[in-house]
């Protein structure tokens, strides 16, 4: 429900109430919103575009990358979305990917998404944000959201007008002893890119005439760029690092479009004929930003933190992309357009870098977290920002429950936050937790093999070690209890094959892009709940599952629970955990 009032310009102003308001519907904002809503918060997500996904949406089409190495892939809500996309969008069409994101948010009963709405007003009281207001482009009205907690996942740090401290540009090398930082601080940033997608048309030579406003390029100007058509998404069609990505946004877009059409015109009409059988399928109209304004939290993440693996006591998520520092001169730079500085394939990110040090109810997730330019060059990628978002959403729910603020979660409830995140399949490096069923006297046995892999607290394969249990359809796993139990939630964690290709295509559109569900992921199973005499009192069946994490509430008393008839999408299933959570 909301109230409608008229402001001085006679445009309607709707006033909405929420527990948690997220600004920005990229992957960080989507995951933050879902995490909070599932933990019981009435959540409103405000998105300034008509689709979700940010740089991953059909408007920009950048693939979601994150920690390197198969064992380090992001799990949790992001993995659920990826699997959902395979299930509903096996042909990997970007227009349907938009709708997959739309659908998962629509199905959350505690979540409302407001599209085409741009925040331009923040009201504060002391050190707290009380409300934000946004102009609704399609409905031509103001929407005000009053909430207990806010998260800025906009990338542009739009809630900085609350008075939160921010940083911009590149720090000097000596400020934090970062060896890869420039000698002197400056306002330069990484540029924004407009991507292109090509399509191969064998046997058909398609002509192309560049428009008059396209830039003219000579091949030797771009000798350090990839000028082959196959599997090329042209991420280096970049501009704006020497400008202000907010104030100069229109100029950056216009020049990026000019660059894109100019580069393709040069490639297509090159005398070598390398692009004769290729056609231009799509050119983005919205630049994808890499860098803008960053907040300052209780901890400022640095290059050295990443290189030391981020072993913070308050780590709540992980990264693992290299420090990918694009040259601010962008397309004008004659050398390779980015420098990859090595980081560990997995490092921890502290909770203290995800909330404002001076606005007590402001979280943030995305490229705008509390980090230096060098650290942000790694943490900015969307797989990493998505798990930040999940951490922030869970933290907001915990803060609301405990009647504290962002910092209070760190000071008094960080262990509980980490426990909840792991329960929801968030990977926190070097941190595990014991099975809940063991704490209430449960004994785990398996008909097929020793159940030890399900007791080691590791919920993914690591360093080549298989930490799961393979099950054929006639195998079973059973929890037995000395005392009758009632209630609880079954928690079953399968294997979605982190080594698989799971990203949306950001290069040439090919006919073989059709994706398949991971073969070892649980497709169907049954659960038998038995009483103290061994009689089955209830059987629960699940078919056509596409989730890695499965939670099923229990309403029957039981002394034994048996998992049986487990079938993977292409045969045997592989599971990492089978547990009963307390209510």
From TrEMBL:
UniProt-listed InterPro entries:
FAD/NAD-bd_sf, HdrA-like
In terms of Gene3D superfamilies, this protein maps to: FAD/NAD(P)-binding domain
Name the keywords, alphabetized: 4Fe-4S, Iron, Iron-sulfur, Metal-binding, Oxidoreductase
Q: Does the keyword Magnesium apply?
A: no
User: What molecular function terms (GO) are annotated for this protein?
Assistant: 4 iron, 4 sulfur cluster binding; metal ion binding; oxidoreductase activity
**Region ranges (Disordered):** 169-188
Pfam families under this entry?
FAD_oxidored
Signal peptide range in chain numbering: none
Protein biosynthesis in keyword set: no
Name of the protein in its database record:
Fumarate reductase/succinate dehydrogenase flavoprotein-like protein
